[in-house]
């Protein structure tokens, strides 16, 4: 009996996905560049299962049913291209290659087009949930060659996480790089969520002077509210974890955050498409700032910065902080969906935003209770341009604004950095302001560069230039929208 699917790459994610597939009755053929890794897997975690090994790509191909389905769980970039180049001569027309890594979506666009010319189908699929998700049910976001989806759908939907209504957290996203784009935005929102939580933690620790046990209790309680989410849940676990000496382990961890690039890609794409992804971009910059540890230590001493305590009723502040965190989190998702909408329009992907919310409802790192509300919002209005305009989210934002402003103002007053939470509030203020000061900005651009401007009393699309000093000319620069 031949295998249903082959998986290349036996690092932790690859191994766990294979075991998950095996649990659901699929015969998997496992391959790794180093034969020792295959033997270790077969004699270790895969022992006693129906999983079989392949010690060469030819053996892998020979052991699979047609059309062959081969999933790459390897490092994104050149490694993926290398495996594709080696596999193509061994495959037949109609066979399917799947990239399950964190690939930048333009690479997936390129691979879909190149393989189509050879008659090979390609799927670029985001997989979220970490080790546990891969083993017991991840969120899976496939895109690429639509002809390949019917052959992969039963496997992917079987192994994916399920909602409380037993809906699979996996569905077809769209053509070309749509799946990897949605995964990229997922990771960007993940950056934002994590940064917002750390800002709340610092406000409680440095501003309110709370102990780790007190903070753990707060996050446990918050997880029973609209903030219910995987990241809030694990934060309570982390704050309660003690080192061998009985002290909180989290305070012994160096405060320099790493990143693998997906948050940066999200920010770059937002800039390219002109979408104000302010919160997520600030979260990326916050990680960059954290890496300047030695400089920050010197600067704190140079400026003589002192910590100021936040005065007032601690419970009142904790509730205000909860509301500020919730409102900011909504803005993070709203901005992410704005970016996906622009990308969908630009690339002709026809994304189903309700389905995206469903795919994120379970298994993935940003899974949270209000993703069900996001799905409902897009079911009601598939053309919803701003998530905050939906009645449910609009109500939360309006009810939270006073507490949100209170927290943001106090953080500025006492010197606690909250870049993502304050940028989210500033974004909402800007988005809900009918007339911004960009009229003065356009006048400045026209003054020094003759870049022209439009007038409120003339038809849109008609451009004007003014000789502001009487010394300049009347010739304008090339007209363009910035």
Automatic annotation (TrEMBL):
Record InterPro entries: 6-PGluconate_DH-like_C_sf, 6PGD_dom2, 6PGDH_C, 6PGDH_Gnd/GntZ, 6PGDH_NADP-bd, 6PGdom_BS, NAD(P)-bd_dom_sf, Pgluconate_DH
GO molecular function, one term: phosphogluconate dehydrogenase (decarboxylating) activity
Annotated active site: 183, 190
Pathway terms, separated by semicolons: Carbohydrate degradation; pentose phosphate pathway; D-ribulose 5-phosphate from D-glucose 6-phosphate (oxidative stage): step 3/3
Residues bound to NADP(+): 9-14, 32-34, 74-76, 102
Keyword NADP listed: yes
Keyword field contains Transmembrane helix: no
GO biological process: D-gluconate metabolic process; pentose-phosphate shunt
Residues the entry annotates as binding substrate: 102, 128-130, 186-187, 191, 260, 287, 445, 451
Keyword list, A-Z: Gluconate utilization, NADP, Oxidoreductase, Pentose shunt
Pfam families for this protein: 6PGD, NAD_binding_2
Domain of life: Bacteria
Enzyme class, UniProt record, top EC level: oxidoreductase
Free-text function comment from the UniProt entry: Catalyzes the oxidative decarboxylation of 6-phosphogluconate to ribulose 5-phosphate and CO(2), with concomitant reduction of NADP to NADPH.
NCBIfam families: gnd (TIGR00873), PRK09287.1 (NF006765)
Family: Belongs to the 6-phosphogluconate dehydrogenase family.
Name the UniProt record assigns to this protein: 6-phosphogluconate dehydrogenase, decarboxylating
Organism: Aliivibrio fischeri (Vibrio fischeri)
Name of the gene: gnd
């Amino acid at each position: 009996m031949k295998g249903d699917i082959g998986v290349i790459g036996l690092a932790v994610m690859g191994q766990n996905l294979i075991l998950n597939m095996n649990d659901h009755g699929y015969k998997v053929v496992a391959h790794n560049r180093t034969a020792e890794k295959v033997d270790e897997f077969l004699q270790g975690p895969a022992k006693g299962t129906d999983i079989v090994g392949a010690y060469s790509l030819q053996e892998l191909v020979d052991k699979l049913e047609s059309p062959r389905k081969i999933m790459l769980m390897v490092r994104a970039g050149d490694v993926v291209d290398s495996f594709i180049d080696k596999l193509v001569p061994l495959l037949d027309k109609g066979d399917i290659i799947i990239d399950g890594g964190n690939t930048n979506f333009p690479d997936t666009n390129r691979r879909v087009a190149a393989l189509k010319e050879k008659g090979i189908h390609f799927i670029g699929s985001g997989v979220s949930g970490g080790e546990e998700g891969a083993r017991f049910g991840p969120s899976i976001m496939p895109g690429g060659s639509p002809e390949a989806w019917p052959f992969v759908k039963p496997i992917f939907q079987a192994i994916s996480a399920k909602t409380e209504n037993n809906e699979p957290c996996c569905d077809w996203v769209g053509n070309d790089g749509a799946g990897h784009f949605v995964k990229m935005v997922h990771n960007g929102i993940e950056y934002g969520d994590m940064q917002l939580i750390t800002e709340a933690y610092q406000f409680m620790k440095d501003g309110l002077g709370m102990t780790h046990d007190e903070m753990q209790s707060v996050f446990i309680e918050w997880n029973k509210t609209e903030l219910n989410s995987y990241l809030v849940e694990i934060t309570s676990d982390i704050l309660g974890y003690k080192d061998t000496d009985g002290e909180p382990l989290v305070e012994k961890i160096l405060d320099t955050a790493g990143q693998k690039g997906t948050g940066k890609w999200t920010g770059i794409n937002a800039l390219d498409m002109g979408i104000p992804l302010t919160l997520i971009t600030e979260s990326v910059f916050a990680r960059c700032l954290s890496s300047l540890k030695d400089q920050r230590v010197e600067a704190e001493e140079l400026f003589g910065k002192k910590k100021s305590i936040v005065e007032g009723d601690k419970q009142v502040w904790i509730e205000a902080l909860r509301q500020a965190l919730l409102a900011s989190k909504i803005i993070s998702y709203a901005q992410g969906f704005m970016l996906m909408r622009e990308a969908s329009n630009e690339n002709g992907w026809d994304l189903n935003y309700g389905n995206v919310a469903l795919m994120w409802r379970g298994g993935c790192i940003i899974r949270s209770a209000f993703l069900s509300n996001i799905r409902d919002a897009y079911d009601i209005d598939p053309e919803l341009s701003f998530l905050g305009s939906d009645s449910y989210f609009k109500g939360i934002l309006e009810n939270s604004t006073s507490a949100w402003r209170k927290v943001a103002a106090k953080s500025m007053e006492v010197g606690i950095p909250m870049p993502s939470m304050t940028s989210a509030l500033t974004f909402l203020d800007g988005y809900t302001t009918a007339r911004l000061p960009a009229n003065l900005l356009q006048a400045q651009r026209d003054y020094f560069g003759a870049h022209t401007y439009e007038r409120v009393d003339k038809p849109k699309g008609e451009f004007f230039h003014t000789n502001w000093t009487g010394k300049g000319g009347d010739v304008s620069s090339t007209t363009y929208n910035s």
